[in-house]
């Protein structure tokens, strides 16, 4: 591919985006090319490891759930189902994705074709059997809102850049559990922050 092909254009857009307003070490660019989380690549990695370990779908679900076996014994939480995992090629919630990312031991940026600089190779927090990885949606909302305010943008303008609706973004402030994995990763990439900054090991 020549110097004027799609790759060169992406690099040019990223360079221009990096020159926009800086807020501390956080960036939010209207011209940034945000590559989405690849659900099919994520599912392919799950399927490859499942086959390598000769696990049936129910056995995989059990193995994933057993990562938090102590926590599970303390609370009557509903385990992840084989059907939920099998549907991940078509999309999943950000919280369900963490179950499998923990099992794969990879950060979600591994499934973005061209992740933003500074977001690559940052591992998710470690969790022991008495913990479960969770997204802090309130923190995600707070950082996005701060970047939006710094730019003087409306929620509608921000939603247009992230290819979603304003209510999907404002709803993060009060969301009790989850949002879509694709949207969560669009936001982290727009902020040029690794997903690990918004994930924690929860004991409940």
Written description of the protein model:
The chain is mainly alpha-helical and about 200 residues long. The chain has one domain. It has ten helices and four strands, in the order αββαααααβααααβ. The chain has helices spanning about 5-20, 40-50, 55-65, 70-75, 80-85, 95-105, 135-150, 155-160, 165-170, 180-190; strands at about 20-25, 25, 130-135, 200. It has a two-stranded antiparallel ribbon with strand order 1-2. A two-stranded antiparallel sheet has the order 3-4. It is globular, with a radius of gyration of 18 Å.
Strand content bin = 5-15%
Order of helices and strands: HEEHHHHHEHHHHE
Chain-averaged pLDDT? 87
The best one-word shape is globular
Tell how many strands the DSSP assignment holds. Answer: 4
The biggest beta sheet is recorded as: 2 strands, antiparallel
Spatial strand sequence of the major β-sheet: 1-2
**Amino- and carboxy-terminal Cα gap:** 50 Å
The number of helical elements comes to 10
Measured as a percent range, the helix fraction is 40-55%
- Low-confidence sequence ranges: 1-27
Radius of gyration: 18 Å
Structural class: mainly alpha
How many domains, as an integer?
1
């Amino acid at each position: 591919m020549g110097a004027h092909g799609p790759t060169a254009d992406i690099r040019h857009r990223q360079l221009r985006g990096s020159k926009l307003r800086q807020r501390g070490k956080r960036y939010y660019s209207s011209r940034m090319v945000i590559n989405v989380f690849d659900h099919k690549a994520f599912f392919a990695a799950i399927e490859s490891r499942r086959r390598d370990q000769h696990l049936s779908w129910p056995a995989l679900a059990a193995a994933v759930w057993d990562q938090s076996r102590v926590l599970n014994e303390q609370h009557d939480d509903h385990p992840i189902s084989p059907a939920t995992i099998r549907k991940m090629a078509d999309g999943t919630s950000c919280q369900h994705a963490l179950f499998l990312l923990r099992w794969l031991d990879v950060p979600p940026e591994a499934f973005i074709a061209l992740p933003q600089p500074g977001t690559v190779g940052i591992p998710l927090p470690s969790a022991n059997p008495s913990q479960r990885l969770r997204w802090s949606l309130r923190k995600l909302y707070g950082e996005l809102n701060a970047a939006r305010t710094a730019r003087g943008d409306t929620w509608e303008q921000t939603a247009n850049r992230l290819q979603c609706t304003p209510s999907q973004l404002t709803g993060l402030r009060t969301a009790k559990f989850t949002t879509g994995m694709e949207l969560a990763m669009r936001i982290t990439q727009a902020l040029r922050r690794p997903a690990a900054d918004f994930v924690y090991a929860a004991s409940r």
